[in-house]
Here is the input.
Amino acid sequence: MKALAFFPLLFLLLLAPSAYGEQRFSTATEECLGCHATINPGIVSAWKKSRHAAVTPAEAFKVEGLDRKISSGDIGDEMKNVVVGCAECHTLDPKSHADNFEHNGHDVHVVVSPKDCAACHAVEAGQYQKNLMAQAHPNLTSNAVYQFLIDSVNALPAVKATPPAPAHKRDLTEAESCLYCHGTKLTVTGTTSRETELGSMDFPVIAGWPNQGVGRINPDGSKGSCSACHSRHEFSMETARKPYTCKECHSGPDVPAAKVYDASKHGNIFYSDNKHWDFQKTKWTVGQDFTAPTCAACHISLLVNTEGKVIANRTHEMKERLPWRLFGLVYAHPHPREADTTVIRNKDGLPLPTNFGGEVAEKFLLTADERTAARKRMQSVCLACHAQSWVDGHWERFLNTIESTNTSTLAATQIMGDVWARGLATNHAKGGNPFDESIERQWTDVWLLWANTVRLASAMGGGGDYGVFADGRYNLRKAVQAMKEWAESRQDAKAKAKPGSRK
Amino acid sequence: MKALAFFPLLFLLLLAPSAYGEQRFSTATEECLGCHATINPGIVSAWKKSRHAAVTPAEAFKVEGLDRKISSGDIGDEMKNVVVGCAECHTLDPKSHADNFEHNGHDVHVVVSPKDCAACHAVEAGQYQKNLMAQAHPNLTSNAVYQFLIDSVNALPAVKATPPAPAHKRDLTEAESCLYCHGTKLTVTGTTSRETELGSMDFPVIAGWPNQGVGRINPDGSKGSCSACHSRHEFSMETARKPYTCKECHSGPDVPAAKVYDASKHGNIFYSDNKHWDFQKTKWTVGQDFTAPTCAACHISLLVNTEGKVIANRTHEMKERLPWRLFGLVYAHPHPREADTTVIRNKDGLPLPTNFGGEVAEKFLLTADERTAARKRMQSVCLACHAQSWVDGHWERFLNTIESTNTSTLAATQIMGDVWARGLATNHAKGGNPFDESIERQWTDVWLLWANTVRLASAMGGGGDYGVFADGRYNLRKAVQAMKEWAESRQDAKAKAKPGSRK
Amino acid sequence: MKALAFFPLLFLLLLAPSAYGEQRFSTATEECLGCHATINPGIVSAWKKSRHAAVTPAEAFKVEGLDRKISSGDIGDEMKNVVVGCAECHTLDPKSHADNFEHNGHDVHVVVSPKDCAACHAVEAGQYQKNLMAQAHPNLTSNAVYQFLIDSVNALPAVKATPPAPAHKRDLTEAESCLYCHGTKLTVTGTTSRETELGSMDFPVIAGWPNQGVGRINPDGSKGSCSACHSRHEFSMETARKPYTCKECHSGPDVPAAKVYDASKHGNIFYSDNKHWDFQKTKWTVGQDFTAPTCAACHISLLVNTEGKVIANRTHEMKERLPWRLFGLVYAHPHPREADTTVIRNKDGLPLPTNFGGEVAEKFLLTADERTAARKRMQSVCLACHAQSWVDGHWERFLNTIESTNTSTLAATQIMGDVWARGLATNHAKGGNPFDESIERQWTDVWLLWANTVRLASAMGGGGDYGVFADGRYNLRKAVQAMKEWAESRQDAKAKAKPGSRK
Here is the structure.
């Protein structure tokens, strides 16, 4: 039974060779393959290596217990006895997809959404909707404060142009900067005709395409993109479980999880030894299948011990194991309770989980009890390889680092507040952007880059060289000092505004 | 026949074991091995693992069609029936090599050049000579503007020294900084005697050695070093096809191709899955041999689809697939037509493809039609895995990013021009170096580091976190803002030059 | 005999299956496993994959010559015929361990120290005690100058806080910043009771735990942590020989060995090809087992040529192959003679190997002859793959880079001295911290980050892009220039201190 679960293709080839072959593809999928195997050989070949191409839902349902990968209660009979091919996803529920179009007799949609995946993987899709990431698009773009930050990065500086500077399409810039990870909003804006080998054909024009951001707004209204992590079209669990996948979005100094991991003991063991590991086991056995955690092991995967006992249940809702949110905001703070953070209001009325003084917007964030539960779920993973005293020691340092980096940020923010008050820079309260001037950018560096890096290094690696000299404490202290000296060296704006001074 | 192409060693061992053995080495190579297998076991062992050590040219010629690796029309009979050993390369055409010397009865040269490799690989060597890289040495060192940039990096700051500061040999510094990648000029400067296990021996002294830069000037007058990518002495196609090879020179923020790739979806798939891939197939089948492109796949390799149809021809002339040059210059611009860029003159008479206002030196750069052809060759690779709408969407963003980063650079350059005009910094027009003062360096950062990074992230990865926070848009905008504030805060040089001010 | 050396487990399983099984574990270890296999499956599974779990010391002693891994003359009979399990290390010599405690009838200690490892690996433990790393804790924390540097990084900036800023425990910060790598001092501070599945149990409380820093001060008074590199509990030679291990501490721009290696030709070959290499051979054969060096190959490992002749003896005392110390100090200088550097006094009486003018504290550093011997040991590794002219050329550039970076540092230090003299910043001589003000931090960047990076890039990679644009020469020159301009733009402190100026 286990062999069936792990090696269904092999099983079927050995015991029922005649059952394998074209007849396992739906007629519609066969038609797709007729052309696309030649036109897009990369997609088709990758898919052929996938589990989707090898197993029918009916077979997947036969797997019992935690080894079962299909999580929906039932699916229609029509789909049960064919493997999951092109048509099974790209023609599913055509009416709900605004990007659906007639294509050689089929109603096809370009963008496969989490709703489509939920046909078979309902539990994971449901968990993911409660994940902060599913709301990554509105959480960023509908937040007035963040909008200032986006402007301070993506608005072009002024030019005196002869000849005129080329046009700049801001939405195209957004799509490949912030929204590459946060997800674009996909909107069908029209239809275009293209000459193909089969003559002229019509295709939908989709603004925001291509995109695989974690909070993508799909043409069917759903949110997210499973292929952000489960890369098309092999959808390999091995890929999703390796740190390279998370690195795509967790790479820069604003959220350097990949870099921190690379310089940690866990990363050391992963990179040195993972060629000997098994990334394909649905129940992932600690110590046996792998000897150091990857991102997925701590945050998502179903882990068991060598006796098959569950250490951690699979979750696609990250906060299950996350008491704190460490990055992206001015201060580290208890993790938000809801995936939609646009509803948060701090004491000053801003849509942020803390105010600029560091006071938390309690009612929108995990309570102490909820944080304890999340911590325990995370620590059960730690304890599989570490004794309690090790884990306690690690956690004490981590909490101290949250406190100390928040204190450093408070110092920087007080300097910034003073600078604003003295009229040396102009924030939103006075009609400016709080993130665009040089002194404001130095302040932004403090929390968005350096404090975040220090906290991630602490949380994921127990500290180390990376969290000190590579974008860490060394940089953090330097930036606060530079802010202090700058503020001290400046005369107040009013005093400055006297005749004879340069404007 | 295919088995012969792919596994010639195996084939020969199975069918003609007696044909394999010492008699396949030339007598000269056997003599080399006699000593050097012990003296330099690393070189010899690596070579023994190579295809060169396993196949004779005569056997290589028997391979038909695209699987054939030897590309010269014919080679002398003398070399045809021995494998490619030490002597075959290091004693070839001795008279043309200024570094040739008498060594135990053989005329040996130290530096194997592209001309030597061309004996068997004439097509690739020919393509490479049309590649910008082949001219990387003079393109850098013979350009008066770049010479200023080199000075601003490699000239030492002044010291008042007692005892005297240690001597600094600038040519040694150049050889391990700019010229490590661009290539040194190898010049035989004399002869030295060394005690060896076989007694005293004479060896040539070669200034600029060692070096494997892409534009190395060899003692035989040829340009380039095949071993820059085809690492000695295994010359493994697997190595050349992996991104680590390109990373040696495309690593820093001036040209962070490796870092961008590492944080891209393509990189994600490569790093996660490449242990399952086949890097040895001469015709590299998309989707089957590999499921995401490496540097070589997009820029160089011969790609076929699963039916063996050519998707992209092999080229060692990068601009075949490159309409634009994105990095290294003040503005992104159409790719130069000729590998030798020292002939370029912009409207202001400088040897640069644009002037400081961004206007292109049209007649030296690819025309619109040539760019279209190059784009189509590149996109045929994209289309093997992506639909047309995906590729079009990607390209539209990429062109916008060229425009928007050029606009940001124009804004910075206008500020810089103003600073020069006001006498706050001194450029080449006034006898200074346009790159050495702090404000000039900030301007250099804008285009040489940040704008380049943004463009590479767009071109290779469709954007993402790396192109924003890791040396990307965030840094670009910050640097332009800092320049603006600096310029605004300064009094003009003339106004400043009044009694009582510090000099 | 060789098969026995390399595959003892296989050998035993084939020839003497009845000898393998539970009876090879000591009774004490069996008791440990009884609970901990379930409680900490990760540790136990990793250990089961280790050589320790597969070989008894008696078997290890049977291996002859350089293949033998056990290096102690003899060990007690009691331990000889059981594999090295939990109890063999964690209950060894209980009286010497301050963290020892009664645990289910056994005297167990948490922290296994180099003294414990020395029971079987006496030679390596002895070498390591002469390694600078063994003294990394006192070398940092007992040096008054370094203490200033630590303060400038880890002391929090001042805040005006209402509500009060959260408490910050400095020792917890130290433990995950500097001391993560340098090693904490482990001190038993008490006992705690914890509820377990077997009821309430007492455990020692150890301040500074967890830690695996190279210079950890252990509860038995010994120094170091073998598991810094020989990761628990698999203790795999493969892991220790791969560069990921060193990266944990040699990662940031203060000592970017990992980053430099990644962008070097050696790194290129390692990353491209190492899946084909053998990392398990005790005698590591150059060219055969591996074709490019890793960190361990150049600095530590026992290397032989294809005839089994020793190229380099194994050493855990790094300076055996290191004539120069390149990083961590103001100037590169001859390597210290003793591991304990706290005894060093420069001409100005400070505990540094040079004074601020660059003059070396000769009597504490390797003599010219000792440096020659160290250079030759290192170069014997180079020569396994490179001809003498290659190695000589490399070394000449490397020495020039030591000189040129020291000269740049001297220029920066002279500017700094001038700034201190003019009262524009306050150093230790005037009761301040020489590293905390912005201009001082810029000076620190010059030597601690950029000059170090340039030297490591030269030493390990022969230069290249990384040593220029990624934290290298480009940054070094920029920082010195910025210091110069800052100093020139400032009025002297005295001149400034006149009525009307802002304080």
